[in-house]
Amino acid sequence: MALLPGQASSASWPRFLFLFRGVSGSFRLAELHSAALTLGVDEQQLTFEAASSLAANLKQPEIADAGGDVGPDLLQWVALPSAEVATAVASRCSTVRGAFEVWATARFEPACSLAPAEAAQQADERWRLLADCVHADTAFEARARMLGAMQADSWRVDVINIGANKPRSLAAKVALMETFDSLLGPLPGAVDLKSPAQIVTLIEDCREPDGPRAAARRSDLVQAPHWLGLGRLLTCGAAAHLSRFALSDRSYLGRTTLPPEYSYLMAIQARVLPGHRVLDPFCGTCSTLLSCAALGAITMGVEADARVLHGTIADGAHLRPKGSKALISEPSASGIATNFAEGGLPPPECLLLGDMASFDALLTAASGADKAAANIAFDAIVTDPPYGLMEGLGALYVPLGQRLTSLLRLASRRLKLGGRLVFLLPLPAGADVAQALPDTLPTARCLSLERISRQRLSQRLHRLLVTMVKVAEPTTEAEGLLGSAEGAEAGKGTPTSSLAHQAPWEEWWRTVQAFEDEASSWPVVPPADRSRV
Asked: What is the mean pLDDT of residues 150-165?
């Protein structure tokens, strides 16, 4: 038992409990880390520590099937300067379910699964033990600190059950709440079940020690909670963003439109803030730019396929899921502009049609006499390069190695110092990250690798979320500096040297091309993912 387990000491920040959603597990701590640093949190004092009884068990969480979730534990202690900062950080994270100021916890060793009635009885007994600790005469000062932030606000009590096959009934929840009557009864605020100012939360972790597969095999047995937490909800995460921009609610979709779960994660990794300029050089239907715009960015995109860039709502109608709730007004309306309008966001400042390898020429032609616009630098480049799996190998196909070479050079040239390049990269399950992104790339002096998160998509295909930071300006063509031939061709078409098969890149190109050739022979990832893989 522990009272006020998150309180600060003279040498450390207070700790807050973050409860994550059971999705995108390999990205959850990366998103939280980036969100915190974006808001100015000191990286040296920012710490994470798994909270549950299962943290030391490598089987938990476990992949339930080929598309299951795996990653750090769902319950994490996060050290942050204050409750206000914890609220701000959590509210930016789409993988966070909620952040809590914890008043008391109890931890028990996981035991054998029980019949439902026995497990419920044991759960109630464990909650009573925690309640006795909270209500003890010696805990008077601790109780005062627990309730200090409640003041006279309206409130209610919620119960969160993690890992149970069946949640508690309403009667069981009420009985559990009454266990803490001595603590909550004296609160001066009114009980408000609909929209209270404060939510007292009881969290019980009933996950199986051996993972969800074991739970599925023993469907008639359940695990009594082995970790209990009592506290105050600070805020929910940014999952509302995902529902706001759900693919099923968009009027315009492409065949490879990136779901908001990933485009938002990428925007957070890029540390996008209001007023930042963000470029997607493979923008497609602008899903990544939609998430960046939601964070306040000024966006710009490049797309080689005119049908996608200038498509109308009617053009993408066959791709909308059955029962779509998209708000469609005019079938002839611009698809991309409509998606932004439905989200209440300004559309991209500029959308360029052409090969991103010719970005400088395209932008010069579009800017005319405006030299400032032609020389614009970006705070972030966020993109999901096409891989040739779902979109096929048509007339616009360029080998992945060439696409990535052009992307890295563009980032070296067009990012501000300290700006970030964030992109997705597929690779076979057995491949080494060092093969996909060796530290010997010609752009390595300009672009420093900040983070790689690896996600399992299927038994044979993984995906990397790569974040690079620009640390130096390019000085050679291999690093991204425009050559004289490219300068002369500005506005006239595709620069030759950007796509030339140059010696420093050859070995890497062959490796990446082998990845794409291997992946192209596999079945396509289930369409539920609807991402560019």
From this structure: 92
